[in-house]
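User: Hi! Is it possible to get a structure for several chains at once, not just one? Here's what I have:
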Amino acid sequence: MSVYRLPFTVYRKIVVGFLFLSSIFFFLSSPSFAAERFFEVKAKKFSYTPNIIKVNKGDKVSIRLISEDVHHGFFVDGYGVKTSAHPGMEGALSFTADKSGRFSFRCSVTCGSLHPYMIGYLYVSPNNLWVWGVFGVLALGLISWLITSKKKQKDEKLKLFGIIPLEWRFPLTKFKPLRALLKSRWFPFLPIVFNLFIFTIILLAGFIGGLGAGNYNFGVMIVWILWWVLLMMFMVPLIGRFWCMMCPFPLIGDWIQRGKLINVGKQKSWGLGKRWPNKLRNLWPLVILFWVSTWFSGFFTVKPFATFILLGAIILIAIIIALFFEKRTFCLFVCPVSGFQGLYANFSLFGVRSRDPEICKKHVPKTCVVGNEKGYGCPWMELPYEMNRNTYCGLCFECLKTCPYDNMDLVLKPFGQDLFAERRRTDDVYNRRSTDEAYKALTMIGIFLSFFLAFQGPYGHLRDMVTAKTFGLHGYLGYLLESFTIDFLLIPGSLFLFAWLSKLASRSKEVKLKDVFVNFSYCLVPVGIAIWGAFSLGIIFPNGSYLLHIISDPFSWGWNLFGTASIPWTPFFTGLMPYLQVLVTLGGMLFALDFGYKFSQRTYKDIGEAKRGWIPILIYLILIHIFFVRIFVG
Amino acid sequence: MKKTVYFITFVLLAAFLGLVYYGARHWRGMPVQIERFETPALNVAFMDKDIDLAQGLAPEVWQEIKLQEIKLMYQVTALPWPKIKGMLSAVTVKAFHSKENIYFYMSWPDDTEDRIHETTQFSDACAIMFPVEKDVQPHTIMMGFLGRVNIWQWKGNQDREYWQKESPQTKAYVDYYYPFEDKELFPVSQHVTKFAVNDLLAIRVGTITPKDVQEVMGKGVWENGVWTAVFKRPLKSLEGENGVNFISGKRLSALAVWNGSKGDRGGRKSISDWLELNIQ
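Assistant: Yes, the chains can be modeled jointly so their relative placement is included. Here is the combined structure:
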């Protein structure tokens, strides 16, 4: 009997079994008796010993804090209590553990470069949030299985959660003021100039800023706290390559190539105008370059001068690439942060699309490609008239400016529409939408893991490895090996294993394993967006208040421009944070489950194969989400 | 065109590398601490009086000076404190100078007068510490850590030998305890008393060394469960720039108290945070 033709009683047994398992979870999480607990915690840059403290709900917890090097603090997320200790003196803290769950305790006194990431974990049993998180993952998985198992035939029209047709589009530029704005040559020039101003201050702060502590430096705080969080939580998931639209880095290169800053100059790039090799006209260069850039995360995310070097090098490389290669080659194939923005932009709500393909077909020459007196031919070397995905569209809106028929629109579309877009000829020519995008999705999850463990985990030795305190196998080299193993072997290997199981379960003879692997990798796009969003919450809530200081004293010279320089470090929503992280993670899973079954239908030829092939991937998604919930709150 | 592009590239690379080189040389490093905390202050005013310690502590002189209470905490050690009964919560302190000498007065409660220091009995004591360099930041209290410190330690047993001319039964004693060792060490030393106060130099934990020139005099009196000790030293050090010179302005100091009957010795003591002397 096929697993999809089970009688109702079997379904009932499954649901009852699920509820039974859930009750075991709650039994395991039952509270024990309250007691007085005393902990002696030693602090040194940038770890605590013990790094994990376990108590029961209701316990009276006393902490004796001892510093072994410089002045350190001890703040407990969610409880809002803190103490500090100078070396040679101790800090003391007592509180009743009346909230259950996992709480980070973190340094509250600036103690060095990695101060914001000096973290340990306090577990207050029972950890109900972890139990509820797992319950949520299992429940979503079960619901998904129950829904998909009842399908009798392939979906004729793909609908997001079975509600919104995935091909639905709403042309926002039918509103004339918006169209006029996007057609103006001052847009996006003015936002770029604004960002140029901000980044000039960032570079100056990195170069001549008064203090070496990243949390008191304008450059580090704006780039790695504010920008990164806005990028991962709002720009990329909602608007796609919104940042690329207003990024100031290619401005100088554009100016050199075009001879004009605002108005239309040369259509053919000044400089050598070389063409980027065809074999590298996909996401592979960006997969590698972003991974390589993470090797130095322990430096440029915390040290102002390292931030200066990184941003300076990116600007320099952008200019040099513009001198040697045509148009926005740098943005497309070299910029380290371009790859994940491009891939994740396919999930976003906005995109530039042609309104009526028939008009474009008849229009010769294609001014969106070759340019005219109103604008440049697509700097991102896309074919805007047939564009159906956001990966390589930088939202520069040149095609809106050059189209004489106003046939290009900024459209509102459902989440993930582009992930299901038809392949174009260019995709095959340049071997796009293959393992390049799969590995981009997979390495982003691996990099998340490395970042989370090093910067939000309780492991001081990992922070020592990332910051190259030593260089051997137990130091920096170990970190690089671990990063390579996780990003390129373990995470891709795990998907490959379940893709193989999917093919096996489907009993399909025709479909290639590579296609199964690539297709299902797109489920991980919303997963990646969600876990990076949850990771960003862990950055902005505890550390966001440093922003108030640095806007008043951008160079750490003792200024107080807006009267906020003296506001002390004030973490906010640290109690709410774990709940939001679980919700965001489950939100990502919801999309992954919806997309996953759709990809299964796309991968396999009939409904039977699709449903059977879906089960291993469903299990895979359940397992990785239990793992992610554990990472955040378990 | 090709040559121009290569030339521009070379210039850009050279300029950027130059900037990085300059920046690396002028990078300001990492501050140990940014958030400031309130440092208690002690005024050291001028009084046209001098004290002959051989005649006593001159309580009539000290009555004219307002006392300041300084909070104390226990010195942290790697080994957990087995019993913290000896913990002293505060010490009262006064100071003045006569343009020639500087005087410090410390007073604290102690139920027992402990003036014997051997291998099993420990003496009551108190100390004042000054960074040798004048403009140091108050980074860490423990033995300076970031520079040299001068420590004046008055000890009850030495006071008894020096002022009361009473010799101890044994000269062997233990008084050294390195606070960051995992195991407690008791090196036994031979005792040689020169004065009631040890004039010491340290550059970090575990480096306490008697100075070649002992410049500090001191005397302590125990009465009705209260210790009072007075330190006296010329404003200008005999060691010139290598010593601590008390000139007008601000200078850091810190205090420590040992309760011998509670097991305090060496690293086991109650200590204050940094204290700012305002020498007028």
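Chain A touches chain B at residues 40, 64, 66-68, 70-71, 85-90, 109-113, 207, 209-213, 216, 271-272, 305, 308-309, 312-313, 316, 319-320, 323-324, 568-569 (CB under 8 Å). Chain A is about 50% helix and 10% strand.

User: Great, thank you!
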